[in-house]
Amino acid sequence: MTLTSRRALLQSLVALPALAQKNRARIWAYVGTYTPNGGGIHIYSMNPASGELTPVRVVPARNSPGWLAFDPSKQFLYSANEGAATRNASGSVTAYKVDAESGDLILLNSASSEGAGSAHMSVDPSGKWILVANYGGGNVAVLPIKGDGSIGAATDVQSTAAACTPRCSTGPLQAAKGPKGSFAISGHDAPHAHMFQTDPSGNFAIANDVGIDRTIVWRFDRTNGKLLEPKLFASSPGAGPRHFVFHPNGRWFYSLNEESSTLTTMSWDGSKGELATLDEISTLPAGFAGTSFASEIVITKDGKTIYTLNRIHDTIAIFSVLADGKLKLTGEVWTQSDYPRHCAIDPSGNFLYVCHNKSDNVTSFRIQRGSGKLKFTGHYVGVGSPSAITFLA
Known about the structure:
Blueprint: H1 3-25, E1 27-33, E2 40-46, E3 53-60, E4 65-70, E5 76-81, E6 92-98, E7 105-112, E8 118-123, E9 129-134, E10 139-144, E11 156-159, E12 193-198, E13 204-209, E14 214-221, E15 226-234, E16 241-246, E17 252-257, E18 262-269, E19 274-282, E20 293-299, E21 305-311, E22 315-321, E23 327-334, E24 340-345, E25 351-356, E26 361-367, E27 374-382, E28 386-392
């Protein structure tokens, strides 16, 4: 080997790790929005060092693609589209194929969600089924994912209220454990399914209904896409259970209550599909009085910290997870804008992003490892009516 060729080989070997690191560092961010302000799904390139988001393009979409979720392979992105704001108009779910190199989305198809106001959807761990919660319709649906990533017609649709025997009634307007002087009473006019997702094993499908103050657990037939043998678990009266997360250990379940602005800790029996309440604490500071709506909950990968959002109060509440699974409120941070609806942690675990529904922007915060404390990055991204953010690395 000549000196020149040896030098070229060494240079190429040095360049390979840098190239690999560059490829690994590429992170795409996708922001779902409400129309007309949002206009579709916004794609950004994320700087993994600073957390800054750089606009790439907008994928036009009508009918408010308000919630986004990837399949486990990260080859496909799905949006839940709320559609028209009427109880009788069905929402929909749309499938996109993801171009990992450019971050672009290629439209595959859409299918009816079989209910109005599709507020949340998820993909089961097998990547074969979509679970969608229809807020306006007061029901949940299961849709199959075909081999090419497109969506088929629903295999099952279940009313959340009908899971009760007799049929569940709506909860009280005033939350029993809410702040004094609160008028957070928007969700108890009817059943409103607000989240639908499996447990970590994929053997059970779980829905929170803010209107009937219930968490419903079905045994999930993953062969046929059917919901079987519902069990119901009540929140505190008027609490309005909205979104939930599982602890990484799979034994603890945390349910965020929209109208009481509380966070309920529950134990999860994955063999029986059963929940048991351990504790319920406020997401607001001691002494708070008045109206606020809790909106979103996320947990860090190490399971040590939980963040929740308070709308109107416009804060991120920070909780430490204790040894017994219960929570301790350790601090709060202003979100830097108005009416935070959704938040998510990027794949590196270094940044928390917050979508503000009313001030039309996304803000970001650096996460301090160990303590879970947050520091505002100083970055704002202007986007009309952002409702959800998710990432592809």
